[in-house]
From TrEMBL:
This is TetR/AcrR family transcriptional regulator. The keyword Nucleotide-binding does not apply. InterPro entries: DNA-bd_HTH_TetR-type_CS, Homeodomain-like_sf, HTH_TetR. PANTHER family: HTH-TYPE TRANSCRIPTIONAL REPRESSOR NEMR (PTHR47506:SF6), TRANSCRIPTIONAL REGULATORY PROTEIN (PTHR47506). It comes from the Bacteria. Residues 29-48 bind DNA.
Length: 190
């Protein structure tokens, strides 16, 4: 029975992610989701306390998937700055190619608790990877920012740049990404 229970929970999360990918998280209706799985609301509440709990589980799963992909993208980078640029490029490309999924991952209300909770942070692997990359840069002698301030500056820029690209306002330029990252860290570019 435990196997079926775990399968049902995974099925709910997987379908929620598919529905988010197709139409955005704002359009998720538990009734529609459960109808597609032929489940009752009782079955849902056996696995999740609320829709927010489902969204939290989906966020963690998406973060794990993105982290696996991002790790491959930055895995062979020779130094911390190149890892940051490669990670930024990965995030920008995800924002442009999977807008509903990235909006959900970065901006849905259930992730606010994950971003600020030390209990949940270990489960949010993309956030952890980003902090690791930025932390290695915060040790640069040119950097005068705390790791927290540097994270906010870089993460805000990467997300904002990704949104501009997604909306067609600008086209992606790796050199621009690199130049701005250097400026935000305080490293002179020649």
């Amino acid at each position: 029975m435990a196997g079926r229970t775990n399968s049902t929970k995974n099925d709910i999360v997987d379908l929620a992610i598919r529905m988010i990918t197709e139409n955005g998280y704002q359009s998720i209706s538990l009734r529609k989701l459960l109808g597609r799985l032929h489940l009752t609301t009782g079955s849902f509440y056996k696995h999740f306390a609320s829709k927010e709990a489902l969204f939290e589980a989906a966020s963690i799963r998406i973060s794990q998937r993105f982290t696996e992909q991002a790790a491959k993208a930055i895995g062979h980078s020779p130094d911390a700055m190149t890892r940051l640029i490669d990670l930024g490029e990965f995030v920008v490309q995800k924002i442009a190619s999977q807008p509903f999924l990235t909006d959900f991952l970065f901006f849905n209300p259930s992730t606010a608790s994950i971003y600020s909770s030390t209990d949940q942070a270990p489960h949010f692997e993309l956030l952890n990877l980003t902090h690791q990359v930025i932390d290695s840069l915060s040790e640069s002698p040119e950097n005068t920012n705390s790791e927290g301030d540097l994270f906010i500056k870089l993460w805000s820029f990467i997300q904002g740049y990704g949104l501009l690209i997604r909306n067609g306002a600008v086209t992606y330029n790796r050199q621009f990404l690199k130049s701005v990252a250097y400026q935000l860290i305080g490293i002179p570019t020649n």
